[in-house]
Design goal:
Layout: H1 2-19, E1 45-49, E2 57-60, E3 69-73, E4 78-81, E5 83-90, E6 93-99, E7 104-107, E8 111-113
Antiparallel strand pairs: 1-4, 1-8, 2-3, 5-6, 6-7
């Protein structure tokens, strides 16, 4: 009697594993409101302001000369650069550099960088 019960239990277990081999192990799902994203924290690039006639460099609210001026930077000043983007043309150069902490954008024509600058 005990052998029959053990054998039936063993047959039932083997049948269950054969029918449902991996459904018992499930990976946790990502929260639908917050999908998994890989954020790469990179150090900012650095550039030095180099304007003509030693004028101050305008910092603008967006990547173009049509945006309002929100500040200036002196010649020779070293700037942290978050990323580069395309904007309005400044003497044949369409690249603009984004400054950290919502400080604004500067034309890449007037900033010489020494490290690689990633795209925004």
């Amino acid at each position: 009697m005990i052998r029959r019960t053990l054998r039936n239990g063993l047959v039932a277990t083997v049948a269950a594993v054969a029918v449902f081999p991996v459904t018992a192990v499930a990976a946790p799902a990502a929260h639908p409101a917050h999908p998994t994203r890989h954020h790469h924290v990179t150090a900012p690039a650095w550039g030095r302001v180099s304007t003509h006639r030693h004028t101050r460099l305008n910092v603008r609210s967006g990547p173009g000369t049509g945006y309002r001026i929100v500040g200036t930077r002196p010649v020779g000043r070293t700037l942290p650069i978050v990323c580069r983007t395309r904007g309005s043309n400044v003497l044949g150069n369409h690249l603009w550099y984004k400054l950290p902490h919502h400080e604004g954008y500067v034309s890449a024509h007037y900033v010489h960088h020494h490290t690689a600058v990633r795209w925004c």
